[in-house]
Design goal:
The protein has about 150 residues and is an alpha+beta fold. The protein contains 1 helix and 8 strands; from the N terminus they run H-E-E-E-E-E-E-E-E. A hairpin with an 8-residue loop joins strand 7 and strand 8.
Length: about 150
């Protein structure tokens, strides 16, 4: 009797090749992967509380960040808001808020030659974004000020 034969002379099939075993293992792995993805999706960002006013998704650089003097400054706003930006007391012309993707609500100013600010000064710099609603006209303007440090 060979190793691949049973006591009654029939050919023995390894358990992994038996009908249905590989299907069950594959389905089990897919269900486990789906459970992991669903858990991550459901818990993603659940404990975070935004400190930004309604309409403002974020600012760059982050409040209290330390950044190089040539860094971009600006805000991400929700659709339907029209922002203006003041950096270190200098109003930034709308045409110079071109360092982000405005179609995605990114309005960033990149300092440079011939711009309102050629280079941010070293030290603590504050910026203010003021946005007015263009679609929900009953909503109040949003105003957000933050500061960061440049080196």
């Amino acid at each position: 009797m060979s190793r691949d034969e049973s006591a009654d002379g029939r050919q023995r099939v390894p358990w992994a090749l038996r009908k249905g075993v590989s299907t069950a293992v594959t389905l089990g792995a897919l269900v486990a992967a789906a459970a992991v993805v669903l858990t991550v999706w459901l818990t993603r960002g659940s404990d975070t509380v935004s400190s930004y006013p309604v309409g403002l998704q974020g600012v760059v650089p982050a409040p209290d960040a330390q950044v190089p003097r040539q860094t971009s400054v600006g805000a991400r706003v929700e659709p339907g808001w029209e922002p203006t930006l003041v950096v270190d007391g200098v109003p930034i012309p709308r045409a110079q808020l071109d360092a982000g993707t405005t179609q995605l609500g990114e309005f960033f100013f990149a300092p440079g030659e011939g711009k309102a600010i050629e280079q941010l000064r070293s030290g603590r710099v504050c910026a203010t974004v003021r946005a007015t609603p263009v679609t929900a006209l009953e909503a109040p303007d949003l105003v957000y000020e933050w500061c960061f440090t440049t080196f």
